[in-house]
Amino acid sequence: MIETGLFLQTGFFLIVLLAFLFSRSASFFHPLTIYLIFHFLVFVLRPLMVHAFDFNTMWYYIEFKPDDLQFVNTLLVSSVGLLAFAVAVSFAGRAKVEFTVAELPPWTLAEKRSFLVVIALLSPLAVYSAIFAKAGASFSGEGNIQMTLDLTTGISVFTNTTGYIADAHAMMGTLFILLIWRFNFRLWAYAPFIAFLGYRAFLGWGRWAIIMSIFTLLLVYLYRHSHRWLKIRYLAIILPVFILFHSLGMNRDLVRDYVEDKGVAVADVPQYKSKESFLDQLDNPDFANFEFLAFIVSVVPEKSQTYTYFTQYLQLFTEPIPRIIWPEKPIGTPIKLINLNDFGNFFFMTTSLVGDGWMSWGWLGVVLTLAAVGFVLGRLHRWYWRNQSNPKIVMGYFVFLPLSIYWFRDGGISIAKISLWTILPIVLWSFFSRLIGDLQEKRRSLKRTGAVEPRRYFDGRGGGR
Predict the structure, then answer these.
(1) What is the pLDDT of residues 13-72, one digit of tens each?
(2) b/e map of 177-214 (b: 16 or more CB within 10 Å)?
(3) Which strands, in side-by-side order, build the sheet including 156-158?
(4) CA separation for the pair 447, 135 (Å, rounded)
(5) What is the spatial distance between Cα 162 and Cα 68, in angstroms, rounded to a whole number?
(6) pLDDT in tens, 159-193
(7) Where are the domains of the chain?
């Protein structure tokens, strides 16, 4: 039964993939491209490996292993999610891929000046946050960032600071990519961006920020050269990044230990000493959303006796309030209808967007959730292609599109929290560009009407010229 399910799962994925590739909207800039990559890794390739190589680490961790019917049912749920997303994003995001702007849209004088304003406003906070977070988060009551783990929900919360301060350095990725663009990709302009990547690798727990930042830079490069798809030469960047991502997954302090001359290798980490091969090391949580989804589908609603009915999104109204201001703020969603930890060990795991939809309302929840997200991302895709002459829209889309991977992996409101600091520089850049542009236009208008005298330049002899 499982072999048949895996065959049909793979076949359906290939049908959707081919249908997309033959559409006029297909490109690396399309949200469906990102979702297809995500779906292939966690809902096509992962279950194949789980079945073929008997991956059991996650089953032991969650304290659950599906029977054949549950395994196949999980594949079906993920495929329904793919279909709902593909239909919605294709309908909402239909746009002909046509590069109407040579290289990248040039910046106006107002945009150049507003970028300086944004740098001046955000840099102090970003630098302070980077220094503040350098030691990492501590659950022992030590260091700048102190956290505690809620043993009921498995959610970690700050106890002596807020996420606004701890995560503000995430905006550096966006600012430094803008800096590269602003100075026309000169070699020296890459130095701050490379330093940022090194800092995130040093932190260890910031490895996804490395992926997202490089992803954004790749989109900028593709658009600059009017390339619809990635070229083979980009593997020179992608492969080392994947190796770094995997190594940090094995040991989050890998780079920190080498910087501090501790010389600890991945193989020296106790929990990975028994791993004999690279294949064994892949049996980890990084791409295990299939296992997580199988657990969710088995629990909801048979054991939970209810759905969440989308109440988890009420957290959008409580999450923005810092806990240091509201100590009694609910941990997670203010209305908890389902706690997955009541039925197994789901600590530190992610539901995925499909699992979030299933928890919300079963089959209908999956369709509604994936279709809604597909529609939103599709509209953004269409908006981007119709506004290629606007650097702010182009950069905003390039920053947000990679973040959709978080949305697909985590579900819930995670995208709102993650995108706050990465999108903020673009929002402020747009605001000040319009403000400065309006002031410039107002001055030009006053000059034309004679309400303002032209500037006079003095020749040093008491007379103007």
Answers:
(1) 999 999 999 999 999 999 999 999 999 999 999 999 999 999 999 999 999 999 999 999
(2) bbbbbbeeeeeebbeebeebbebbbbbbebbbbbbbbb
(3) 137-138, 145-149, 156-158
(4) 55
(5) 45
(6) 888 889 888 999 999 999 999 999 999 999 999 99
(7) 2-448
Contacts of 319 (CB under 8 A, 6+ apart): 413, 416, 417
pLDDT of residue 202: 82
- Distance (Å, whole) CA 52 – CA 3: 10
Model pTM above 0.85: yes
Determine the distance from the C-alpha atom of residue 427 to the mean position of all C-alpha atoms in its chain, rounded to a whole number.
Answer: 17
**Interacting residues of 160 by C-beta distance below 8 A, sequence separation 6+:** 144, 145, 146, 324
Which residues have C-beta within 8 Å of that of residue 433, sequence separation ≥ 6?
Answer: 108, 110, 111, 114, 392
Which residues, listed in sequence order, are joined to residue 458 by a DSSP beta bridge?
464
Query: So what's the pLDDT on residue 450?
Result: 67
Min mean pLDDT across 84-98, 165-179, 434-448 is at 434-448
Report in angstroms the alpha-carbon separations of 104 from 110, 198, 221.
Answer: 17, 27, 9
